[in-house]
Amino acid sequence: MLSKKMEKAFNDQIKWEYYSAYLYLSLLSYFQSLGLPGFANWMGVQFQEEQFHARKMFDYVLEKGGKIQLQAIDAPPNNWKSPLAAFEFALNHEYVVTRRINDLVDLAQKERDHASAIFLQWFVTEQVEEESNFGDTVNKLKLVGDGGGLFMLDRELAARVFIPPVAAA
Ligand code: FEO
What we know:
It is a single chain. Helix 1 (4-33) packs antiparallel against helix 2, helix 1 runs antiparallel to helix 3 and helix 2 runs parallel beside helix 5 (149-157). The protein has one domain: Ferritin. The chain is built from 6 helices and no strands. The relative contact order is 0.16. The longest helix is centred in the last third of the chain and has 31 residues, at 114-144. The protein is mostly helical. It has helices at 4-33, 37-63, 83-110, 114-144, 149-157, 165-168. MU-OXO-diiron binds at residues 17, 20, 50, 53, 94, 97, 130.
């Protein structure tokens, strides 16, 4: 079973994962409106990844006999001043998610909840990939600026496809 503290912390994080999905859906619409379908595709894949994260945590809480309490999802922003500003916003969001996952691991250890600590290791590793993915594109955007390089990067980002992590393992 889960302690009440762990149960609440997981429910809070499920909301954050769904907020992340919402944020990336909003970013999809931003990039589509700029005429950058490859960037929009990339955000669409990220939207799916976040839903996977939320569902993975949701299923774990149920498996442990915990109670799910879904929460209202905040409205994300829907406008940024440039593609670079949008990706920097997303990268900073991922830093917050990483901090929250680390806090969850700390809490699991404090509660002597070894099962949750092990479960959360998947998310610790996933956040390394998340920060790296967003960070790479931030760096590329800094290199290409606003010129034709943006369209080449758009073609590159169009290739991203969603592979469910379980199938990929
Ligand atoms: Fe679910 Fe992007 O962290």
